[in-house]
């Protein structure tokens, strides 16, 4: 606990007796206002005895620390309440000021939702105990999930197709079909239970759960498909209802037009009525669902009673003979008929009847406690509906023969030799219609078999109405709710219009209208057996991803995966995902391919757009696990020259200040090797620490926006050199550590303070000491573009966001981030058929060759011709040229043009020599060749000064740099890029000013970028296979 010292307590005697409350300790201009969103303390809080509120907060200690509370973790406060936040680390750890000052200002600013939310958290208002007048309607697990799921599962298939499937597949295979479907849905139910209990759930149902678990890429695609599948399911259930009504019209001889158009007309009228109920609001929709549930219960009771009642003559003529052992035995085995007469044909028609398990999850935003309601209600719904399916299949298969004529005249004397079939034993002869396949009744011909068997047929009709309409209504609500959540996330273009909600329940009225239009389009098909398989693939695709979400979240071992529902297994979830995909292809392989193609297309779109959302998905956790595993695995990999990669520490400062340097290194390291942008922030640590926190994310976003694959690393140091030393030693991880230091050329070295030049050259020496290679980049126009940038905005974010940026001590952070318009550089443009000239003057291990080779492989540089220049003697030019060509061919670099420079050691022109002498003149010690001790004494305070002895010793090397500049101007004036071996000045023997003069005269007056490169004298190229 961060306790307050006595000296920190305000001095008001009236408040200093006994212990102090938080408000008395803080004091100041806020007039004792409570902090951290606490209510105003009662007067007793200022007495020597504590209030209960104080004890809850502090346990009686004089401290600004707070005890754990729900509000500190919630996304936002309730309506009209102040946001409660815990003290920041700075409040507890740093010095607390005396009266007249507040705690660290940032602690009390409202924190943005993306800082606190993991995507699975509801508003804190849901925890409020009292129900405000405008609070939306919430449902428990029975009414909100179990009843809704059962109604959605008990759909049109139960009444109109389950008897027919039993006749086609037989009781045994029908049970297999039911249990296989239930296996998939039960595994999915367990997975959805685990996902939904891993944090608070908002509205959006299946889409919300998948997207927050697997991320927006898969979540978005499956959300769109799932919403569409529910809209089509509205059509399926409505067509089932319309079929029943049409059969009634036919039975009473009152068709509207013809059978097909009757279904269309009735379907459109029905779905319009369902739309009206949905538009009335969730409360009315829920009341309608309860009514439908009661009707279905009564119809079930009516059916089971009907199976026990002895059949009338009319029912017997239609194939019903009550419970008979031989009928049961005959109906155990399949009797496939028609184009759908196969196991998977029946499965594809039945499976949509098991897909209602997500009806409760799809209205997750309207549940009181989704984490409890979804698992309990979903699994109970699966249990009871499975029992009902198995019972109805077994009972109706024991009572009704497959074929019957429906004619009262088809009676026969028992044992007649002309009669074939089980019905003969019960006094009925259906032989003729059976052989001609013209029977209109019987289990396999009559879809309304359950009505015929029941005690009172209109009650079954009412049950069909209740089941079909309730399922259609649930699917209509699910489609709109899921689609609304998807639209709110703005993952896809042109759908934001449908995100708007209306009323206290945020009803997606526009989503209802869209789902209505889709449903009407599919109602026009007017054929239930055609619509059902279309839906099956989309639901199976959703189930596969739900199960994979559970598996992936478990396998990543993320600390954030802590579902309160424990009755799941990651391997069973994976099995559920695999079996769902397998069933998709077994049902309709071409529809499965279409569904998967749509998912992949939508996935690729989201991957391309990269929406700015952060939901803490398992994909993110998996990426970390994979990166960690491979990074640790690299420690076991022995280094080999063939696997050498130039891993660069680039001293960019703020990366946006030196875009050319970033682009150059980013070009040849992209998808190949490590790049770290190093930034040394110079100054006292306490003073610069707030700035460090603010700028890091901004620079990383700038790199991402520029599509540079690099890391950003910053350190605070007292001076540049010590900061770079820290970076050189600490940057990287394991084997992924930089081995090349890339710096920009210090263009202002002649006018800058000599101490900064001394540090600059010292950094190069430090790099060599740590066995780094070194690259120095010089551009004619310079590298630092910060002077032309606008210093008053933070362009990584929108200008409006810039106004919201946290301030440091009341002022904006001094570091400029990036300009709105990204500065373009030569490395971002096509180079055409220019030359890349390599001056490989000294053997540094091959780095001088490797970097331009990697650059030349990139699209913008691959048309350039690479020329290699080497030094040589005029009388051995051919031999030396052939030797270098032979060496290069063994390296397989593709460099074929080699030039030998025999005049490299000639004396430079006098005017150029004079220019060099004038350049170093201000830095000469002019000691007159005195002894070393005297010289050291003379430059004790100016170590960069050049003694006469040093000028004399390095005269040949100095003239060589002057001559090399002449050669560069002669041969490479129009090149796209010049790469030249960096000369090395011996540490302690070559003053920094003399070394900088070498680099200056070597690269002076050159138009193209110049890269001065020196490897660490170890091989980076090899021509061996091992």
Automatic annotation (TrEMBL):
Keywords on record: ATP-binding, Cell membrane, Chloride, Disulfide bond, Glycoprotein, Ion transport, Membrane, Nucleotide-binding, Phosphoprotein, Sodium, Sodium transport, Symport, Transmembrane, Transmembrane helix, Transport, Ubl conjugation
Q: Which reaction does it catalyse?
A: chloride(out) + Na(+)(out) = chloride(in) + Na(+)(in)
What are the start and end residues of every segment in region (Disordered)?
27-49
Q: Which residues form the SLC12A transporter C-terminal domain?
A: 658-792, 822-1025
Q: What is its main location?
A: membrane
Compartments where found = Apical cell membrane
Q: Quote the InterPro entries the UniProt record gives.
A: AA-permease/SLC12A_dom (IPR004841), AA_permease_N (IPR013612), SLC12_C (IPR018491), SLC12A3 (IPR002948), SLC12A_fam (IPR004842)
Molecular function GO labels = ATP binding; sodium:potassium:chloride symporter activity
Q: Which family does it belong to?
A: Belongs to the SLC12A transporter family.
* UniProt protein name: Solute carrier family 12 member 3
The source organism is Vombatus ursinus
Lineage of source species: Eukaryota, Metazoa, Chordata, Craniata, Vertebrata
């Amino acid at each position: 606990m961060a306790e307050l010292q006595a000296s920190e307590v305000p001095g008001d005697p009236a408040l200093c007796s006994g212990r102090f409350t938080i408000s008395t300790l803080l004091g100041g201009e806020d007039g004792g206002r409570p902090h951290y969103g606490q209510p105003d303390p009662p007067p007793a809080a200022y007495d020597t005895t504590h209030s209960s509120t104080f004890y809850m907060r502090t346990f009686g200690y004089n401290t600004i620390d707070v005890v754990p509370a729900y509000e500190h973790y919630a996304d936002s406060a309730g309506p009209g309440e102040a946001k409660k936040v815990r003290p920041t680390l700075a409040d507890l750890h740093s010095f607390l000021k005396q009266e007249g000052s507040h705690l660290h200002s940032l602690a009390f600013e409202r924190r943005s939702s993306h800082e606190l939310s993991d995507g699975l958290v509801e508003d804190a208002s849901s925890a409020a105990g009292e129900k405000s007048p405008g609070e939306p309607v919430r449902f428990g697990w029975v009414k909100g999930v179990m009843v809704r799921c059962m109604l959605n599962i008990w759909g049109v298939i139960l009444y109109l197709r389950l008897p027919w499937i039993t006749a086609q597949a037989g009781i045994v295979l029908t049970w297999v079909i039911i249990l296989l479907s239930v296996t998939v849905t039960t595994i999915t139910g367990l997975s959805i239970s685990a996902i939904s209990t891993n944090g608070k759930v908002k509205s959006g149902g299946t889409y919300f759960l998948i997207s927050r678990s697997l991320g927006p890429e898969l979540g978005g695609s499956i959300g769109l498909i799932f919403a569409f599948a529910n809209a089509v399911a509205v059509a399926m259930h409505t067509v089932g209802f319309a079929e029943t009504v049409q059969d009634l019209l036919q039975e009473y001889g009152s068709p509207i037009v013809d059978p097909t158009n009757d279904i269309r007309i009735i379907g459109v009228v029905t779905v319009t009525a369902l739309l009206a109920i949905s538009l009335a609001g969730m409360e009315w929709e829920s009341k309608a669902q309860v009514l439908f549930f009661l009707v279905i219960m009564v119809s079930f009771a009516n059916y089971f009673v009907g199976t026990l009642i002895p059949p009338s003559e009319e029912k017997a003529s239609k194939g019903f003979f009550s419970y008979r052992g031989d009928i049961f035995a005959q109906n155990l085995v399949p009797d496939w008929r028609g184009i759908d007469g196969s196991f998977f044909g029946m499965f594809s028609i039945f499976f949509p009847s098991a897909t209602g398990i997500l009806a409760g999850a799809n209205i997750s935003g309207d549940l009181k406690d989704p984490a409890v309601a979804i698992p309990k209600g979903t699994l109970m719904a699966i249990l009871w509906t499975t029992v009902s399916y198995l019972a109805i299949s077994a009972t109706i298969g024991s009572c009704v023969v497959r074929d019957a004529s429906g004619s009262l005249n088809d009676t026969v004397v028992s044992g007649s030799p002309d009669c074939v079939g089980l019905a003969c034993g019960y006094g009925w002869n259906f032989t003729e219609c059976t052989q001609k396949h013209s029977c209109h009744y019987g289990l396999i011909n009559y879809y309304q078999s359950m009505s015929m068997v029941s005690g009172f047929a209109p009650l079954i009709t009412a049950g069909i109405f209740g089941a079909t309409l309730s399922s259609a209504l649930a699917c209509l609500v699910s489609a709109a709710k899921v689609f609304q959540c998807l639209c709110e996330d703005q993952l896809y273009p042109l759908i934001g219009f449908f995100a708007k909600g209306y009323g206290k329940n945020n009803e997606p009225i526009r989503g209802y209208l869209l789902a209505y239009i889709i449903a009407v389009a599919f109602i026009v098909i007017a054929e239930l057996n055609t619509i059902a398989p279309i839906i099956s693939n989309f639901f199976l695709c959703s189930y596969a991803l739900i199960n994979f979400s559970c598996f992936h979240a478990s396998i990543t071992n993320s600390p954030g995966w802590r579902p309160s529902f424990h009755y799941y297994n990651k391997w069973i979830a994976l099995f559920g995902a695999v079996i769902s995909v397998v069933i998709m292809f077994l049902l309709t392989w071409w529809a499965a391919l279409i569904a998967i193609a749509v998912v992949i297309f939508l996935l690729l779109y989201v991957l391309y757009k990269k929406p700015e959302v952060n939901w803490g998905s398992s994909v993110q956790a998996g990426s970390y696990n994979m990166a960690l595993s491979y990074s640790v695995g690299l420690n076991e990999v022995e280094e080999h020259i063939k696997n050498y990669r130039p891993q660069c520490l680039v001293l960019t400062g703020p990366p946006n200040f030196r875009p050319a340097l970033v682009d150059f290194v980013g070009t040849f390291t992209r998808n190949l090797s490590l790049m770290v942008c190093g930034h040394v922030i110079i100054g006292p640590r306490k003073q610069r620490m707030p700035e460090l926190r603010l700028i890091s994310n901004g620079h990383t976003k700038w790199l991402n926006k520029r599509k540079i694959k690099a890391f950003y690393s910053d350190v605070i140091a007292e001076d540049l050199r010590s900061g770079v030393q820290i970076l050189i030693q600490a940057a990287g991880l394991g084997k992924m550590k930089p081995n090349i230091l890339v710096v920009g050329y210090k263009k202002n070295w002649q006018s800058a303070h000599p101490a900064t030049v001394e540090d600059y050259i010292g950094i190069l020496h430090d790099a060599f000491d740590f066995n780094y290679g070194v690259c120095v980049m010089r551009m004619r126009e310079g590298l630092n573009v910060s002077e032309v940038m606008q210093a008053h905005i933070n362009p990584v974010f929108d200008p409006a966001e810039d106004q919201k940026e946290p301030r440091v001590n009341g002022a904006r952070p001094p570091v400029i981030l990036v300009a709105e318009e990204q500065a373009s550089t030569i490395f971002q443009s096509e180079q055409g058929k220019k030359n890349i000239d390599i001056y490989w003057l000294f053997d540094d291990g091959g780095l001088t060759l490797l970097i331009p080779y990697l650059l030349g492989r990139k699209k913008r540089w691959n048309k350039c011709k690479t020329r290699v220049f080497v030094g040589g003697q005029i009388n051995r030019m051919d031999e030396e040229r052939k030797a270098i060509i032979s060496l290069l061919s063994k390296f397989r670099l593709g460099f074929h043009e080699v030039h030998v420079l025999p005049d490299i050691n000639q004396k430079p022109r006098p005017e150029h020599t004079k220019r060099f002498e004038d350049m170093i003149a201000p830095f000469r010690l002019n000691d007159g060749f005195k002894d070393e001790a005297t010289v050291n004494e003379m430059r004790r305070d100016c170590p960069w000064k050049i003694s006469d002895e040093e000028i004399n010793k390095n005269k040949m090397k100095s003239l060589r740099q002057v001559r090399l500049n002449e050669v560069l101007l002669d041969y490479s004036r129009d090149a796209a890029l010049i790469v030249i071996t960096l000369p090395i000045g011996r540490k302690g023997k070559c003053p920094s000013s003399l070394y900088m003069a070498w680099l200056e005269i070597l690269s002076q007056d050159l138009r193209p970028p110049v890269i001065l490169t020196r490897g660490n004298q170890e091989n980076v190229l090899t021509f061996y296979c091992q």
